């Protein structure tokens, strides 16, 4: 099931080299097809028998004075990918701003209150997954409250996606997430380096991203790690899968928020579907591969329309069509 990460011996003779690569490409294509099918398997059917909330209630923990866009992007992306309800738990002054972007979001201005942990804890029984970090900032009080929220969420066995400043917190205190099997970390280049320095003593081998993401996942006790980049590499400490869905060369801010928000939802779907639907592959690997493909496809579609002026808002508007193209049967 591992994608495109087998060691390929490269003989000097041109002909053999060409053949090796075409075999390699054939494996890649087959693995891609497998993963598309596995994601399709975890997507819940749209039926008239369900009630509001059943297809996903996702909480985003983030949003402060400086950053209001990131939690909005994450929460909207979860909704547009098919969640029924999206909640944002943010600092007081961010709340009216986030609410003003959209009437779709339920916004709780609790993150900087003295009883923030209690306030969020009240909602945890209703949440299927939590996305921690988009637009959180690095204020000590907020980070302290987020620590409490992480502990309470782990105690309830809730799937947790950790992104952006949530990863900053984990780099300060890796024990917070060490060994938690329902965690997914989504570092960009910089965030990956910080985590690596915090948990692995030797220098990162930049020539072997595959080995690095595997090692980081193992060092964190097999939490799932998504290393974002030109290709996204995803590891659960046992295998590495690669997502190379075609995107574009446009790198506007906020694309990672689209990924983490949609991943919160897909993590819930995948865990609910279970190993039977994922043919024994880790459900969180399948969810991560699905969310990476979706993000890149949105980027691709938006770029076709808007080119250099593509923004994350344009990408979010593509989620419906991108999702149908990739995953609807
Ligand atoms: N609209 C909003 O509200 C948005 C808010 N956001 C929120 O901002 C907060 C901080 O998040 P962050 O990602 O800016 O933080 P951080 O880890 O300090 O990285 C910054 C530095 O890392 C580097 N760098 C990054 N990628 C790299 C690469 N591939 N390869 C090489 N270098 C790379 C790059 O360094 P530079 O090139 O500038 O020297 C960059 O300056 C967080 O809460 C987040 O959610 C965003 O979500 C966007 C939309
Ligand atoms: N060089 C690249 N080529 C193609 N896709 C990329 C490239 N770099 C990142 N991506 C894609 O963009 C998405 C977001 O990754 P990125 O590294 O921009 O995250 P980020 O820095 O956390 O974003 P944000 O601005 O939301 O914080 C991922 O799905 C990733 O696959
Ligand atoms: Mg980010």
From TrEMBL:
Enzyme Commission number, as recorded: 4.2.1.93
Annotated catalysed reactions: (6S)-NADPHX + ATP = ADP + phosphate + NADPH + H(+); (6S)-NADHX + ATP = ADP + phosphate + NADH + H(+)
Protein name: ATP-dependent (S)-NAD(P)H-hydrate dehydratase
Annotated family: Belongs to the NnrD/CARKD family.
Residues the record lists as binding ATP: 228-232, 247-256
Principal cellular location given in the protein's record: mitochondrion
BP-aspect Gene Ontology terms: metabolite repair; nicotinamide nucleotide metabolic process
